[in-house]
Specification:
The complex is a heterodimer.
Chain A lengths: L15 H35 L2 E2 L7 E2 L3 H8 L1 H34 L4 H9 L6 H11 L6 H8 L11 H12 L4 H12 L3 H9 L4 H12 L1 H16 L3 H8 L2 H6 L2 H4 L2 H11 L3 H29 L8
Chain B lengths: L1 H18 L17 E8 L4 H13 L3 E7 L4 H9 L6 E5 L3 H7 L6 H6 L9 H6 L1 E2 L2 E2 L2 E2 L5 E6 H6 L15 H8 L1 E3 L2 E7 L7 H7 L17 H15 L4 H8 L16 E7 L1 H9 L5 E5 L9 E2 L3 E5 L6 H11 L2 H17 L12 H11 L6 H13 L3 E2 L7 H16 L5 H20 L1
Parallel strand pairs in B: 1-2, 1-3, 9-10, 12-14
Antiparallel strand pairs in B: 3-13, 4-5, 6-13, 7-10, 7-11, 8-9
Helix pairs in contact in B: 1-3, 2-14, 9-10, 14-15, 17-18
Classes of the chains: A mainly alpha, B alpha/beta.
Chain lengths: 315, 448
């Protein structure tokens, strides 16, 4: 009688078919891997090196040790732009999540017209960022903008959204809510996946609407909430196009708007790199932003272990 | 995570591309006379007959040169990427205020040999324009247009206020607040007519010069932003705006103006007196020829005409593959005869459209003289004809911010300072003190 020897644990031999499949897999993955190495990994390594140099893009980089990082820590313009960016993120992300969730809950209740409203809420996302910037510059005009005119109808003298440094950031946050359609759609999809029997069971147990929302809806969509928290936080920290268009896009606007109030971190990075030709310093700025995003993301992931429920996982 | 990677790779990707070839070769612009091969340009476009006529003249006289014009406004990213990758265009058309920075970094060539071998007469160019293209005594660019600033007055509104244009005297700073109050219309907290627009922060250097001080030294290396006379100039301008409801209302009202159509602020009676570039005269002549316009020179506090000049220039990049043809091109594009041909094309086009030709204002003084002596015909509209004469007269009173190795940072320092004051965040002296520190740090760093 023939005996079959089981492969030693941990050294399972792959069949020829498996090896062939692996080769094909690597072949199909090769374009992405090559692209990643050339367009992501390579530039990242290069920018890390450049962050330790004095580099004006025109002449060869000169190693200057940690000078760029020291300057980063002491440059008030960097601190200002970082402060503005954090301020924006701290307000934008919770607002987008709350409003999107509210809209998604409303949309879920809409019957046959849900498809129409879903499209309506998503349409603004399709608007080019540059157009959004210009549009809101007009909407936020102090004397003739639609927003202040609307406020005037209810007796409120609207603020100088684009020139008063205290109101520049709220104006930008207002603008940022224009394109929350993506988050709404994600929440709507998550809400539609919550099993109805959970609500029925909760109702039988005597749970009211708020209790059902807190004990059923929120845990069941916590994965989507966590995903949008991460994505929106990262996007907020990288805010560039709309604000650059509004306040820095051409000489006229760049001259007459308060750049302290509207300076975001990536905008300042861009100016350092291409207007002032401090590419080494800008590279150091990019790495600081990377570190900040990494820390925030890791903290969020850590917190998610306690608050996020994924179906199929033992909790 | 791909977004994180993208965020970090933003500067990195650009850096890698830009660092590909490191520095660029040295040497002076060729300036030989043999012109053939390919010639590439950046930052220029065929926007009108002034551009096409001159390019056509070059093509006609240099049939062996294949001209490749990458149309579009100058883009710093595009230019720097091209330079760093070792594949720069031969010629770049850029704002003269950028030349000092690029010259100091070595991305554009001195034109000493080019000027010598092509026998370019630098004296034909206006001195203010020459100052903007010269760093440490070396010429790096050939200037094109010369944009100057004059004072526009709405005489119709002045009459309603019981005044004449002669009574508007921007040299008398002490009287400006009373004049402004008389001319502006602010009611119910709403500004509906600007009395005097000082046009700050853009025109602060001109107000400072009127007060007897240059905000930047002639060598472009020393900022004088905290000079008490600059502080006084800024205070004067800011007060005019505060009188009209403050910066928020003032700017938002001004942002609604359309200077390029028939509904311009002059025809809509939205503004009475303001300094502005001379190009608005062309627009007014074309779109609203019946407005009651009077143009006067801006003056210093002693009443002497004064204006600030700006404009573009041609530069030859380091690493240019065809510097000889490039040199021939800049010579021809800015030569007297070429300008004259372009002006004739403009005059013909305006005539065909039934619109007046209000002249051409170039950095070539000799060309301007010929254009106005041989080509310009008074329109018959005295207001516009007088305005043309005024603009011509102030060209010789022009100054310019000189070439500086940190021009962009210097500009940002004083723009930011003015904006902080306008926003009520700082007082003029405090804001300009900070601007002085920022500009000095940038200039010192760039000078190393």
């Amino acid at each position: 009688m023939a005996t079959v020897t089981a492969p030693a644990p941990g050294r399972r031999r792959r069949t020829p078919l498996a090896r062939r499949e692996a080769r094909w897999a690597y072949l199909f993955l090769a374009p992405w891997i090559i692209g990643f190495l050339i367009f992501y990994a390579g530039p990242m390594v290069a920018s890390l090196w450049l962050s330790f140099t004095e580099y004006d893009v025109i002449n060869p980089p000169e190693y200057n040790g940690l000078d760029n990082y020291r300057e980063l820590m002491s440059d008030p313009a960097v601190a200002r732009s970082l402060g503005n960016t954090v301020y924006y993120t701290a307000l934008h992300v919770p607002l987008v999540m709350l409003i999107s969730l509210g809209l998604a809950l409303l949309l879920k209740r809409v019957g046959r017209l849900q498809g129409f409203f879903r499209t309506v809420f998503y349409l603004p996302v399709m608007t080019p960022a540059v157009a959004v910037g210009i549009l809101f510059l007009l909407l936020l005009n102090t004397q003739d903008g639609l927003i202040n005119r609307a406020l005037g109808l209810v007796g409120i003298d609207g603020p100088s959204w684009t020139t008063d440094p205290h109101w520049v950031m709220p104006g930008i946050i207002l603008m940022s809510l224009w394109s929350l359609g993506s988050t709404v759609i994600i929440y709507l999809a998550a809400l539609q996946n919550v099993p109805r029997d959970l609500y029925e069971a909760a109702s039988i147990d005597g749970a009211g609407p708020w209790a059902r929302f807190r004990a059923v809806t929120l845990p069941m969509i916590s994965g989507a909430l966590f995903f949008t928290l991460i994505v929106n936080t990262i996007a907020s920290l990288q805010m560039f196009t709309e604000v650059y268009t509004m306040y820095f896009g051409n000489r006229e606007t760049q001259n007459t708007f308060n750049s302290d109030a509207a300076s975001f971190y990536v905008i300042h990075l861009f100016q350092e790199a291409f207007q002032f030709l401090h590419m080494g310093f800008a590279s150091a700025m990019a790495w600081l932003l990377f570190a900040i995003i990494l820390v925030i993301t890791l903290a969020q992931v850590k917190l998610s272990n306690r608050f996020v429920y994924y179906e199929g996982e033992d909790q | 995570m791909s977004r994180i990677l993208r965020a970090t790779a933003f500067a990195g990707a650009l850096s890698l591309v830009l660092s590909g070839c490191g520095g660029v070769g040295g040497g002076d612009a060729g300036g030989g006379t043999a012109t053939k091969g390919t010639l590439s340009t950046m930052g220029f476009g065929f926007s009108d007959e002034i551009a096409t006529t001159r390019v056509d003249a070059f093509k006609r006289d240099h049939p062996d040169v294949e001209l490749k014009v990458t149309e579009g406004a100058f883009d710093e990213q595009q230019f720097l990427s091209a330079v760093a990758s070792g594949n720069p265009p031969d010629l770049v058309y850029m704002d003269r205020k950028l030349i000092g920075t690029y010259a100091k970094r070595g991305s554009i060539q001195p034109l000493t040999d080019c000027v010598k071998k092509q026998d370019i007469d630098l004296e034909q160019y206006r001195s203010a324009a020459r100052a903007q293209v010269t760093l440490d005594g070396t010429v790096y660019g050939i200037p094109e247009f010369s944009t100057v600033r004059v004072v526009y007055l709405n005489e119709g509104l002045l009459k309603k206020a019981g005044m004449t244009a002669d009574q508007v005297n921007l040299a008398d700073w002490a009287a400006l607040p009373a004049l402004n109050t008389k001319l502006a219309t602010v009611s119910g907290g709403r500004l509906s007519r600007i009395g005097i627009d000082p046009k700050i922060p853009e025109f602060l250097p001109m107000w400072a010069k009127a007060n007897g001080v240059d905000m930047l030294s002639a060598d472009g290396r020393t900022a004088r932003l905290d000079d008490p006379k600059v502080v006084e100039a800024l205070t004067t301008g800011v007060n005019l705006i505060q009188q009209q409801g403050g910066w928020g209302k003032f700017k938002s009202f001004r942002d609604t103006f359309d200077f390029f159509g028939a509904q311009n602020p002059l025809s809509k009676n939205q503004i009475v007196a303001w300094p502005m570039e001379e190009w608005f005269l062309n627009q007014a002549a074309k779109n609203s020829p019946n407005v009651e316009l009077v143009v006067k020179p801006f003056t210093d506090r002693q009443g002497r005409p004064l204006t600030q000049s700006a404009g573009q220039a041609w530069v030859i990049t380091k690493g240019a593959k065809n510097p000889d043809a490039a040199c021939a091109f800049v010579k021809q594009m800015t030569a007297t005869d070429t300008w004259l041909a372009a002006a004739k094309a403009r005059a013909d086009a305006r005539k065909a459209a039934g619109q007046p030709f209000t002249g051409l204002y170039t950095a070539n003084a000799e060309a301007d003289k010929k254009i106005f002596d041989e080509l310009y015909q008074p329109t018959g509209n005295k207001r516009f004809d007088d305005a043309v004469a005024t603009i011509r007269s102030v060209q010789d009173a022009a100054f310019a911010l000189p070439a500086s190795p940190a021009g962009a940072e210097f500009d940002k320092a004083y723009y930011d300072a003015v904006n902080r004051v306008l926003a009520g965040q700082e007082q003029p002296a405090q804001a300009l003190r900070r601007a002085q520190q920022e500009a000095t740090a940038a200039l010192d760093k760039a000078a190393k």
